[in-house]
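Render this sequence as a predicted structure.
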Amino acid sequence: METLHIIGGGMAGSEAAWQAAAMGVPVVLHEMRPGVGTFAHQTGNFAEMVCSNSFRSDDDERNAVGLLHWEMRAANGLIMQMADRHQLPAGGALAVDREAFSEAVTAALRSHPLISFADGEITDLPTDGHWIIATGPLTSGALAESIRAVTGAESLAFFDAIAPIVYADSIDETVAWRQSRYDKGETEEEQKAYLNCPMTRDQYEAFIDALLAAEKTAFHEGETAGYFDGCLPIEVMAERGRETLRFGPMKPIGLTNAHQPDVKPYAVVQLRRDNALGTLYNIVGFQTKMKYGAQTAVFRMIPGLENASFARLGGIHRNTFLNSPTLLDDRMRLRARPNLRFAGQITGVEGYVESAAMGLLAGRMAAAEILGRDLPPPGPDTAMGSLVHHITGGAEAKTFQPMNVNFGLFPPIEARGGRRGRKDRYKAYTDRAKETFSQWLAGQG
């Protein structure tokens, strides 16, 4: 039997390898780390999480991300198995202990008898054999140049940002209080999964002034500020208007200060638990391109973080992705070289779950082809199907940008009754998707 080669051991590559091997196809997983590192990765483990530790909403009835979780679980996805095993309390979200999660994914892959491993960087696109390129947003320069040469098109770039992480014991809990927004979660632990730092109007205004005045890291030559709106640096948000942050990551709604319940905060900074031990918290939505010294000074202006000690400061980096609607077919194959499939963030999906989902599809499609079968994608009324449809033809190529899964990508369902009608419509979306996805899985034997 022919072997499937996968370049990249991130979310997409790990999931693709697992799915193909589960179908009985031998896999070689190529990963350049740790021999060749990136500035964002710290280990050589597979599926290392370098930005947030959250897989976002786990509501599979009224949320498109939660529905994607459901579909990946139904397909025996490795990423979701390990996320569930190493889950942390996070209100209605699915957050994980990032180190334990990555170690578990690595152990599972290394123990599979059909998966072998090849170290070292691949600098040119292979000309023959079955390959999945899942090199993610930090594709090495040499391989990116090879992709450009083969596709004959300019790869696009956007900037993805890393939020800072604070040591829990350096947060002043006489100022900060524990509460998930709107007390979301079924257990008390989930309802208190976040630490909240309140700001008065004067404190907020002073914070915005410092944010705008802080020294920022310059862009490298040839880079442009084509930020993805879902992951904007806080200083860029502030530049769009002084109130922008107060209606974004610093919104005070759904929160009551346990220390001063009668005083409504003007703004609130939230920190989310980042590991199972509860020793680390990340500052939610606080991606930044401020220089390290400026970050420390500005973030210590936040009430409760005056003496904060940082396990990691924020950063921002260039991400490369294909103009997939012009380059890939609906089986995620490169039109110019159909033996090559692409998966993950390099295809223009955004987010851990979306990347892993595209790896799941690419792995199954490639394995099916090796086994002499053709596997179409699931219908566009499923979460996975809506994403792959969007990136391989549903999006406008001229304005193509990275996309999270959302109900706007699904074939519409009519709803009546205003806001309540929308909630019912979301449930109708997920009911329809689950039926279609279940049929797609059943059709594969």
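Summary. The first strand starts at residue 4 and ends at 7. Residues 4-155+322-442 form a domain with the FAD/NAD(P)-binding domain fold (CATH 3.50.50.60).
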